[in-house]
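Provenance

Sequences were taken from public entries as deposited. Structures were produced by running a predictor on each sequence independently, with no templates supplied. The record for proline dehydrogenase from Priestia veravalensis is shown for reference.
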Amino acid sequence: MEVLMRTMFQSLGKNHSMNKLAKRYGLRMGAARFVAGDSIESAINTCRELNAAGKVATLDHLGEFVYTKEEAAESTDMCVQTLHAIAHSNVNSNLSLKMTSLGLDISKELCMDNMRKILEVAKMHGIFVRIDMEDYAHCQQSLDIYKELRKDYDNVGIVIQAYLYRTQQDIKDLNQYQANLRLVKGAYKESPEVAFPAKKDVDENLKEIIKMHLENGNYTAVASHDEAMIDYTKELVKKLNIPKDQFEFQMLYGICVDLQDKLIKEGYKVRVYVPYGVDWFGYFMRRLAERPANVWFVLKNFVK
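Predicted structure for proline dehydrogenase:
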């Protein structure tokens, strides 16, 4: 049943018609729990609240289904506006983005140009930019672009997904760039030809790449709500004598808030991924696919 629900929500998240419908009707069905409003102002206010609670943030202007240069330019402009808003409000936040929203599916050159525009503004304000990893079809392109950008910018990082077979080799390859990585399990539906089908194998691979990246001396963002994975990381950094300024824990806005607060009290750095914008449907569907508990929350909200 859980597998069927996950597949259904992942399919819905890629449905262009459903996405258009969701834009028309705004943040409904409980999505406001996981999305910090549809405007930059609401996102900045959320960052202020997180900062007041001792947490840092990363803002993501949601955007999917970009098919034209004009849409890619609009998405790029929103990223730039978000960077200016972060700087002018003095909130402690990074920027996260998806390169498909910047025109990656149109051309690599267009995406590179838009990435450079964003990174120049981010560099001016001293803000770090994280490239979100998307599905397997975009993995190699994303890594190639990251490596090219890393030659000119030190304020850019990327995400690596533990459910892919290729991941340990990617960690080894990225070591030469002293890459700042967010390490995740992975949220897209992939073929067993490229990804581990079993959760236990994904978990073991995530543990291994956390250890590899920390031992390489590189900054590591462990993005997980799995308390067993968090406890593993705590024990590992003690064993390896890793300083607390070499890693952080990352969690999604609206999920496991009590655990976030607990980590803050224990002296760990916690960064909350804060998505905002009208193009929220695909992101929301992936959150429902990941955690069955989120589905019951939505159903209760819908009944109310």
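Residues 182 and 221 are 4 Å apart (CA to CA).
Residues 21-27, 294-304 have pLDDT under 50 and may be disordered.
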